[in-house]
């Protein structure tokens, strides 16, 4: 198997579990060194150890809403491994409620983590990458940002915003050799989705032409494509990893 990221360093926010950890694991399998940022520092460090320890992975605490902490995350990549070549903005939370019952605090928090967090990561990564005239930024949006989901006015707004941010940043950074793309996962198997009521699960499954749930590795493989030179002439694009749901 060709190592698509040999010699490159990647940062993954929300990297301690779920899609973020799957992305990091896939990147390491293709020769990358990774820095995992997560609110749960212990989990990030445990994940880094699982991936191979200090030689290939570092785990550290990062609140993506705080620009200084995102800058420190990027600096860690450079100090630990000598470069910053890929930045995956994956960190996210949900605070679902109908618009009538959603608190202003829960709206603000979700938008801050997803949208401002992605802006912080994109901005910090782009500043470093433009100096070396190369780099790939991958932003994790969601199918909710394409179609809107009941009970997710905060999440859907933030995830739609990530697509707009990605397109604008891609135009700003293209002549610097930096690419910016987004991924919109659909129903992906995780502890959160498997805890859904059966009725909700069945409803979502009925909307998927491929008639199955997606796996975190299937999202990670698309992140690998965007991170690598396989997508060298792609920027400002959005890949739907949805099994055909809502095409």
- State the major sheet: 7 strands, parallel
Structural class: alpha/beta
Based on Cα principal axes, name the global outline. globular
Q: Strand order across the biggest sheet? A: 3-2-1-4-5-6-7
With helices defined by DSSP (H or I, 4 residues minimum), what is the helix count? 9
CATH uppermost class = Alpha Beta
Helix content: 40-55%
Output the CATH homologous superfamily.
NAD(P)-binding Rossmann-like Domain
Q: Which percent band covers the strand fraction?
A: 15-25%
Tell me the Rg in angstroms: 17 Å
Which assembly state applies to the chains in this document?
single chain
Low-confidence stretches: none
Total number of domains: 1
CATH architecture: 3-Layer(aba) Sandwich
Q: SSE string, helix = H, strand = E?
A: EHEHEHEHEHHEHHHE
Overall mean pLDDT? 97
Distance between the ends: 32 Å
Protein name: 3-oxoacyl-ACP reductase FabG
Keywords: Oxidoreductase
GO molecular function: 3-oxoacyl-[acyl-carrier-protein] reductase (NADPH) activity
Enzyme class: oxidoreductase
């Amino acid at each position: 198997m060709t190592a698509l990221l040999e010699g490159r360093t990647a940062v993954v926010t929300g990297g301690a579990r779920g899609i973020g950890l799957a992305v990091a694991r896939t990147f390491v399998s293709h020769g990358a060194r990774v820095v995992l940022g997560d609110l749960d520092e212990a989990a990030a460090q445990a994940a880094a150890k699982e991936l191979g320890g200090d030689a290939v992975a570092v785990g550290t605490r990062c609140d993506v809403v705080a620009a200084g902490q995102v800058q420190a995350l990027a600096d860690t990549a450079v100090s630990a491994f000598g470069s910053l070549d890929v930045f995956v903005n994956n960190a996210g939370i949900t605070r679902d409620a109908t618009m009538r019952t959603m608190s202003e605090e829960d709206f603000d928090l979700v938008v801050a983590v997803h949208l401002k967090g992605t802006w912080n990561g994109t901005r910090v990564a782009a500043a470093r990458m433009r100096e070396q005239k190369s780099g790939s930024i991958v932003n994790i949006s969601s199918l909710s940002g394409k179609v809107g989901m009941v009970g997710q006015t905060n999440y859907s707004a933030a995830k739609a915003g990530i697509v707009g941010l990605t397109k604008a940043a891609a135009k700003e950074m293209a002549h610097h050799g930096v690419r910016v793309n987004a991924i919109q996962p659909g129903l992906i198997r995780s502890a959160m989705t498997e805890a859904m009521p059966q009725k909700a699960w069945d409803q979502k499954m009925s909307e998927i032409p491929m008639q199955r749930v997606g796996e975190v590795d299937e999202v990670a493989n698309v992140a690998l494509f965007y991170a690598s030179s396989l997508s060298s002439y792609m920027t400002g694009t959005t890949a739907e990893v949805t099994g055909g749901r809502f095409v």
